[in-house]
Write a structure and sequence with these properties.
five-stranded parallel sheet, globular, Rossmann fold, 202 residues, alpha/beta, 2 domains
Length: 202
């Protein structure tokens, strides 16, 4: 099975691209969903995170309130690093399990992991090909503010914490620019998919 990483900056259209790759037959795994699963009461990260941050991050039903947790860690880089050190290994274990299952079901297929910080964690090295999504800065800001209800300052702060585009570009096999129309993006996705199919046959 061909393993493909899909990453890109905040609000640059990763999920849109991932959805179209799934529609074309790829096995798509979403790292965000695995992160949520890892923090569920039966998840690998639940106990250690609760122990580190205390009961104030819990909802009434005992689950972890991700908004409360996010408000704490995004205001404190040390706490964010501590959370990352707990959650990422748990996500990695789930990711590898899903990749194994996909390979068993479809040995000649294409598996795609959609993850915002794939390069920052070094996990991109585990994949055969890397797709990077990008768009112009103003479009990125507008999407971030509309999607998450963020202020311009909040969106800029979040973008500034990510690895610069030119550093990611050096590692990418493909770059999909989502600045234009949805149709233009879909055409790029189809072109990349055709190339991945050809690569997988080799």
């Amino acid at each position: 099975m061909l393993r493909v990483g899909l990453t890109g900056g905040y609000a640059t259209g990763k999920s849109f691209v991932a959805a179209h790759l799934a529609a074309l037959g790829c096995h798509v795994i979403y790292a965000d969903e695995l992160g949520h699963k890892a923090l569920e009461p039966d998840g690998e990260a639940y106990g250690p995170v609760l122990q580190l941050f205390g009961p104030e991050i819990q909802s009434a039903d005992g689950s972890i309130d991700r908004k409360k947790l996010g408000a704490i860690v995004f205001a404190d880089p040390e706490k964010l690093a501590a959370l990352t050190a707990i959650v990422h290994p748990a996500v990695y274990h789930l990711e590898q399990q899903l990749l194994r299952e996909a390979a068993e079901q479809d040995p000649q297929g294409i598996a795609v992991l959609e993850a915002a910080i794939l390069i920052e964690t070094g996990r991109h090295a585990l994949y055969d090909r890397l797709i990077l999504t990008t768009c112009d800065p103003e479009t990125q800001l507008r999407r971030a503010m509309a999607r998450d209800g963020a202020t311009r300052e909040q969106a800029l702060a979040r973008i500034s914490r990510q690895l610069p585009f030119h550093d990611k570009r050096a590692l990418a096999s493909y770059v999909i620019d989502t600045s234009g129309t949805k149709d233009a993006t879909v055409r790029q996705v189809k072109d990349v998919h055709q190339d991945l199919l050809a690569y997988a046959r080799h």
